[in-house]
């Protein structure tokens, strides 16, 4: 049932994106997200993940990609720890979602595969305030589509 709900949310998001012009990317970087805000975001991610029956590794980074806060829910694969951090780091440093990076790599529009820590798989979303990237959220533990949908939902709140 949760897969159907997430699939519907992703389809609705995709349809909405197709109907609206592409949003302009953030113009630059802002002051880094604070620890308190990062921890609040992680707590919301844990609560929402539990409600959806998901188990996640959750990373919040500042614009440079350096870690501000991290949590790993019980029974999340250890590989998800590094992956969540890399998703957040990629999203912050390149000011784009990792789902967008994944689509661009697959379509041949982006060939940046050698940057250290660069990950092109959904689940990383920039945190933007006043048009500037102040950090990013990276999730890992479910499918790339589920990681993407949940990260986008959490950052939009």
TrEMBL record:
Domain of life assignment: Bacteria
Segments crossing the lipid bilayer: none
InterPro entries to which the protein is assigned, alphabetical: GlcG_carb_metab_protein, PduO/GlcC-like, PduO/GlcC-like_sf
Matching PANTHER family: PROTEIN GLCG, SLR1406 PROTEIN
Signal peptide, first to last residue: 1-18
Keyword ATP-binding found: no
UniProt entry tagged with the keyword Signal: yes
Keywords carried by this UniProt record: Signal
The protein, known as: GlcG protein
UniProt cross-references to Pfam families, sorted A to Z: HbpS-like
């Amino acid at each position: 049932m949760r897969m159907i709900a997430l699939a519907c949310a992703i389809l609705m998001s995709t349809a909405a994106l197709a109907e609206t012009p592409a949003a302009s990317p953030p113009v630059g970087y802002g002051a880094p997200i604070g620890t308190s805000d990062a921890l609040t975001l992680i707590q919301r991610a844990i609560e929402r993940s539990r409600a959806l029956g998901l188990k996640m590794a959750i990373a919040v980074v500042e614009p440079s990609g350096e870690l501000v806060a991290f949590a790993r829910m019980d029974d999340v694969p250890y590989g998800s720890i590094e992956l969540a951090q890399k998703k957040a780091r990629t999203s912050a440093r390149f000011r784009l979602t990792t789902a967008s990076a994944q689509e661009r790599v697959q379509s041949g529009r982006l060939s940046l595969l050698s940057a250290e820590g660069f990950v092109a798989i959904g689940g990383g979303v920039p945190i933007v305030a006043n048009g500037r990237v102040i950090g990013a959220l990276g999730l890992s533990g479910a499918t790339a589509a589920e990681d993407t949908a949940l990260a986008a939902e959490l950052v939009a709140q």
